[in-house]
């Protein structure tokens, strides 16, 4: 994989987290495989490659790629507005998180505890999702900038769905961090659109 493709895998994962959060907010449903891919990315330590963070392939990131493509193409009829809004907010929150070494330390030790829960219950167990959602609430949710998720109140008010959405936002911010560590930055989304799109079309075809 080229460096730009590695960046796009991580950025696609930010958009995937946003698409899934939007799906839960509107329908209350999300596939276990997609949820597992994003939760697993939070716990990936010492991955050999960017794809390893997401389970070794990008099959569960395809909806994220499509949402990213629709944002870069700037086609109003295809644009997924809420996922785009959530994605940009996650990228912004990651920048704030980067300045908070104390918070990053707390997150590291809490993720170690969540890893133990995973070994006991399995990756997509309610307890694990609640643990990730609680970690988001205790850390990222304390920033002044908040992500307001819109959807159907019947689904948003269910505690399990709320925990899933928070866990996904946490995973999205983790992927935003990875994207930046791989050399990604917001200006690319403005000035390198055609280059990014060419690579994304390639990724979605492969």
TrEMBL record:
<keyword id="KW-0963">Cytoplasm</keyword>
<dbReference type="GO" id="GO:0005886">
    <property type="term" value="C:plasma membrane"/>
</dbReference>
<dbReference type="GO" id="GO:0005737">
    <property type="term" value="C:cytoplasm"/>
</dbReference>
<protein>
    <recommendedName>
        <fullName>High frequency lysogenization protein HflD homolog</fullName>
    </recommendedName>
</protein>
<dbReference type="InterPro" id="IPR007451">
    <property type="entry name" value="HflD"/>
</dbReference>
<keyword id="KW-0472">Membrane</keyword>
<keyword id="KW-1003">Cell membrane</keyword>
<comment type="similarity">
    <text>Belongs to the HflD family.</text>
</comment>
<dbReference type="Pfam" id="PF04356">
    <property type="entry name" value="DUF489"/>
</dbReference>
<dbReference type="InterPro" id="IPR035932">
    <property type="entry name" value="HflD-like_sf"/>
</dbReference>
């Amino acid at each position: 994989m080229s460096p730009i493709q590695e960046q796009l895998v991580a950025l696609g994962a930010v958009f995937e987290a946003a698409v899934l959060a939007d799906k839960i907010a509107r329908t209350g449903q999300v596939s276990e495989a997609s949820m597992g891919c994003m939760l697993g990315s939070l716990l990936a330590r010492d991955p050999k490659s960017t794809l390893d963070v997401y389970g070794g392939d990008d099959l569960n990131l395809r909806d994220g790629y499509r949402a990213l493509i629709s944002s870069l193409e700037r086609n109003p009829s295809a644009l997924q507005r809420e996922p785009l809004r959530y994605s940009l907010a996650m990228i912004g929150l990651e920048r704030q998180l980067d300045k908070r070494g104390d918070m990053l330390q707390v997150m590291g030790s809490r993720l170690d505890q969540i890893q133990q829960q995973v070994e006991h219950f399995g990756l997509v167990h309610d307890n694990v999702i609640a643990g990730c959602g609680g970690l988001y609430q205790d850390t990222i949710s304390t920033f002044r900038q908040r992500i307001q998720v819109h959807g159907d109140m019947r689904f948003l008010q269910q505690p399990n769905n709320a925990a899933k959405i928070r866990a996904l936002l946490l995973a999205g911010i983790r992927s935003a961090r990875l994207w930046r560590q791989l050399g990604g930055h917001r200006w690319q989304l403005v000035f390198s659109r055609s280059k990014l799109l060419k690579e994304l079309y390639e990724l979605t075809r492969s």
